[in-house]
Each structure stands twice: as structure tokens, then as C-alpha cells.
Design a protein that fits this description.
By secondary structure, the chain is α+β, with helices and mostly antiparallel strands. The chain has nine helices and 15 strands. The protein has two domains: 146 residues, Nuclear Transport Factor 2, Chain: A; 226 residues, PPM-type phosphatase domain (Phosphatase 2c, domain 1, 4-Layer Sandwich).
């Protein structure tokens, strides 16, 4: 076999065993101790250890990367190889580029120099360093665009939430709102009605980002207008009005879940209706039980002509109701277990009076998800409690 053929076989072995299979021990066998690569790492002449680290990073970042040798030519101590690199970036960050799941195909022509059976030099005419620099720049631009959209969504959401909490004699009203990085459509609000009554609402628009924030803001405004126009003791009537109005104003693939209640502070009566929202809990005194506030109804914006079942309960001294969004119950621990409704109900039932229910639940959540938790969705809690000793 000629020396050129031997050199081509040596380079093929590098691509097949080192680059494709990740056998870094073979790299020590094939590459000269003073090996240099002029293009594989941006703004740096890479040595043998740099090349091995780069291959290890490729393995960690791409689930199915592969170099296919399309053509080889050898002359003297040089071997020219044309390869096609195919991969899917779906595992870890690579050179500052976050995984996108996109399929990547790149043609590269590499010139290796082989002296005395060792590869001493590599140059890539299709500049791989430049390729990754361009891709990184595109990722930065995309990340900046996404962050700008998220900031707009946060601004819309914050502007739609109430600035003040109503003060009612003999009652404690405690909202808690913690947005996730990727803004959702959570909201809560208060409606001051005649005869000292108070409307309370919690809801969640489907989706994320600006679309969810816009639908959430629109729904908040509609609920406020409907509550003021009707000024009735019928939360179901408010939801019916908003459902019909919302249908024509949101995209067909979106909807809003919403729980609406009207409190009469003097009697402690709480009438309520539910448009497909997570069931609130009422913590009774004495036996420390937590019961669901059930009422049937479809989410807002899905179908015309919907009616909403109304229910009524009485909050006695020391009893509390919790309205919340699914960001709490759908949080996951590191093993993938969900916080869940049974856990929430049990915690509400066992809650004492030494601290607020919202603070207690968030402490339990943080303990459940453990350190390093990446919050998946907005968390909204709204606690309504009748004082133990009304003044």
C-alpha cells in the first residue's frame, strides 16, 4: 500500500473511531504530540487536548452526530477529506448555543498533514469555528427577541393585576403571585359591588407569552365591566356575559378558565360559579377538613350559549377559602412526581393559624421541588379568611 493510501486510511480511522465513536484513546495514537488544528475552535489554535474536549462536548450535546466521508484525495503528506456532518442539537449547550432540537447538516473540507504515521496538522476550509460563531450570533438575536417578548408579556400581566387589596372589616384577603420565567396567563382581581359586597376572581388563559398575557388582560377587563354593569348577586351571570363577549375576541385555539365568587361580608355568604378552573378549597374549623367548592361550567371562550352552575356556602369565623392556579399543583420534583391535588388538600386541612396559608403552602412547595427548581408555570394563590374574632 502506498504512503498516500496509508495516510488516507489513518485520517479515515480518525473520523470513524475518534470523531464518530468518541474513542479518545485512539486520538492519542493517531495525533502527534505537537498536533495543531487551526479552525475547530474560534480564535484559538487547538492542540490535541482541545480536540478531545471538543469531541466530548459534541457527544454530550448531540444525540446522533455523525461525520460521513464523501471523498478523499491524498498527495504527499496532505490528505483532503470532504465530509458531511449530520446531527440533532437536543441535549446540552454547545459553545454557548442552547439546544433547539434542530437538525444540522454541514459540509466540511478538511486538510490533514500526516508525517511519519501521525497527524500533525488540520485545517478546515469550510470554517467550523465560523459556522458556530454565526450560529451563536443567531441564537443571541433569537434569545434577545424572546426576552423582549417576555418583558412585554410581564408588563401586560402586571398592569392587569390589582394594585391594592380591598380591606373588609372582619376579613383577611391575601393574594400571592409568582410568575414563571415564561409568562403564562394567570390573573386575579377584585370587584367592589353595591351593598358592600365583593367580587373575587382567579383565572388562567391558556398558552404562554404575549398571546396569553393579552387574552388574560382582555378577560380581566371584561369581567370588571360585566360585574359593574350587572351588579347582581349572580356570579354565573357574570361568567355567561363574559363568555359570549370573549368568544369573538380571542383566537379559536385559546380559552380561559375562571372561578368567580361574590362575598357578602356581614353574613359570610360566598356564592360562586366556575368556568372550568381548578376547584378551590374551603378549610372548615373544628375538624380541620378541607372541602372542594364544586360548580359545573365550561371554560370561557370555547362555546356560545353556556350557562354556569351557581353554589353558595357560608364562611364561619376562622374559616378560609383558597383560590389558586395550576402552577402550584402541576409543579414537579426532581424525580418527576407532581405536587398534585391530594397533597394540596391534605396540607390545607392540616394548616394551623400560626402563619398565613399562602406562606405555608409555598414553604411546602419549595421543600417538595428541592433546590434548583425551574418553575414551570405562574403560581397564583388567593386566600380569603374570616377572622376568628371579628371586630
Amino acid at each position: 500500500m502506498s504512503s498516500e493510501e496509508n495516510n488516507k486510511a489513518l485520517v479515515r480511522r480518525f473520523f470513524e473511531e475518534v470523531a464518530n465513536q468518541g474513542n479518545l484513546d485512539v486520538a492519542d495514537e493517531l495525533l502527534a504530540p505537537d498536533f495543531v488544528d487551526y479552525d475547530v475552535i474560534p480564535e484559538k489554535v487547538a492542540d490535541i487536548e482541545d480536540v478531545k474536549r471538543n469531541i466530548a462536548e459534541l457527544q454530550a450535546s448531540f444525540s446522533d452526530y455523525h461525520f460521513s466521508i464523501e471523498e478523499q484525495v491524498a498527495e504527499g503528506d496532505k490528505v483532503v477529506t470532504r465530509t458531511i456532518f449530520n446531527s440533532t442539537h437536543d441535549q446540552e449547550e454547545y459553545r454557548g448555543v442552547i439546544p433547539s432540537g434542530a437538525r444540522i447538516t454541514m459540509e466540511t473540507v478538511t486538510i490533514h498533514r500526516v508525517i511519519e504515521g501521525k497527524i500533525v496538522e488540520a485545517r478546515h476550509t469550510a470554517n467550523t469555528a465560523g459556522f458556530w460563531q454565526q450560529r451563536l450570533q443567531r441564537e443571541r438575536i433569537e434569545r434577545a427577541r424572546i426576552e423582549q417578548e417576555l418583558q412585554v408579556a410581564r408588563s401586560i400581566q402586571q398592569a392587569s393585576l390589582p394594585k391594592e387589596v380591598p380591606e373588609l372589616e372582619g376579613w383577611e384577603i391575601s393574594p400571592f403571585y409568582q410568575p414563571a420565567r415564561e409568562v403564562g396567563g394567570d390573573f386575579y382581581d377584585f370587584h367592589l359591588l353595591s351593598d358592600g359586597r365583593l367580587g373575587l376572581v382567579t383565572g388562567d388563559a391558556t398558552g404562554k407569552g404575549v398571546p396569553a398575557a393579552l387574552v388574560m388582560s382582555t378577560t380581566c377587563g371584561m369581567l370588571q365591566l360585566a360585574a359593574q354593569a350587572l351588579d347582581s348577586s349572580s356570579p354565573g351571570e357574570v361568567l355567561e356575559r363574559v363568555n359570549e363577549t370573549l368568544l369573538a375576541r380571542i383566537p379559536p385555539n385559546m380559552f380561559v378558565t375562571c372561578f368567580y365568587a361574590i362575598l357578602e361580608p356581614e353574613s359570610g355568604s360566598l356564592s360562586y360559579a366556575n368556568a372550568g378552573h381548578d376547584l378551590p378549597y374551603l378549610r372548615r374549623g373544628g375538624d380541620g377538613d378541607a372541602e372542594e367548592l364544586r360548580a359545573r361550567g365550561m371554560p370561557l371562550g370555547l362555546m356560545p350559549g353556556m350557562s354556569y352552575e351557581e353554589k353558595e356556602t357560608i364562611l364561619q369565623a376562622g374559616e378560609a377559602a383558597l383560590f389558586y392556579s395550576d402552577g402550584l399543583v402541576e409543579a414537579h420534583d426532581p424525580r418527576g412526581e407532581m405536587f398534585g391535588f391530594p397533597r394540596l388538600r391534605a396540607l390545607i386541612a392540616e394548616h394551623g393559624e400560626e402563619r398565613s396559608l399562602g406562606d405555608f403552602l409555598m414553604e411546602e412547595l419549595y421543600s417538595f421541588v428541592e433546590e434548583g427548581w425551574d418553575q414551570e408555570d405562574d403560581i397564583t394563590l388567593l386566600t380569603l379568611r374570616r377572622s376568628a374574632s371579628p371586630s
